[in-house]
Fold:
Amino acid sequence: MVADGLDELDRYIIHSLQLDARNTPAREIAEAMDVSPSTVRNRIHRLEEEGYVRGYHLDIDYERAGFQLYTLIICTAPIPDRERLAQEAVEVPGVVSVREIMTGAGNVHIVAVGTDSDDLSRIGQDLNALGFEIVDEDIVRNEYSHPYHGFAGDDSRSN
Amino acid sequence: MVADGLDELDRYIIHSLQLDARNTPAREIAEAMDVSPSTVRNRIHRLEEEGYVRGYHLDIDYERAGFQLYTLIICTAPIPDRERLAQEAVEVPGVVSVREIMTGAGNVHIVAVGTDSDDLSRIGQDLNALGFEIVDEDIVRNEYSHPYHGFAGDDSRSN
DNA sequence: TATGAAAGGTTGAACCC
DNA sequence: GGGTTCAACCTTTCATA
Structure:
């Protein structure tokens, strides 16, 4: 099964908001799915409350904004501590994303934005202090994201 | 200087929208910064037009939504083709994120969401067909993101 | 960058299936 | 429980200065 507890309307809502979370009125989704706008708003609230939707974030071009040090820091954390450390890492100033990888050395991928190399050294030290071992560090040249196609219903109405 | 061409109002707008891009009215930002709501709206449009803000996306808990195969595919692309291939990769159905890494083997990190292992094999084949060499593949156990603190007004590192 | 009127979106309560 | 309706309220748009 594709999506637990989510019906076609939920999937279409997620799809629409993935494309533009700020400028997509409920009415627009409602018309496409032939329900009332309130139904769409009720569903959005349910998706938020039940944790399917964790938030609405900006996609920022950090490079254009003048932060040339957009860095991937590959770390190793002991498996029993990995989840807790990952949650602590995301609170380190400058860290914008943390991925916990299932296996292997380099099981936590952290992306940090820095203004200069001192800033990145400080981030590295903070991560070390938390208990990470840093195994590699590289500049991220670019990042692209794309809405997941699988939420777009049966495709008969995907844009 | 922290951010080229961005003043304190722009940074505060970015910060606010990073926290909640869907439910933050311009009026709220305007009051905090003591300008009119239309000034805030004009600035938001400028940030979009000039490419600082690339979009507004949902932060979805793919695991809760029933997609247990949230996978990091580490690939190598020849440097001259890297950018073009990265842009093509993001269009492969199931791919949700692509990071171009500056150096080394594994210079493109792709995250894909799959419903089953056939789906992921198909994605791997598609990436191969584009010209990527796949060097590693791992399940992403969890992913967290956090607004960049540096946009939050002038106290540069206390988020 | 600000203002103000018109257009359009959201909210919450009452109602129906 | 989930969907709908409607009126009051809030937000944005657009023209204007």
User: Anything to note?
Assistant: Confidence is low (pLDDT under 50) at residues 154-159 of chain B. Chain B touches chain A through 70 residues (CB under 8 Å). Residues 35-39, 42 of chain B lie near DNA strand C (CB under 10 Å from a C1'). Residues 117-130 of chain B form the longest helix (14 residues).
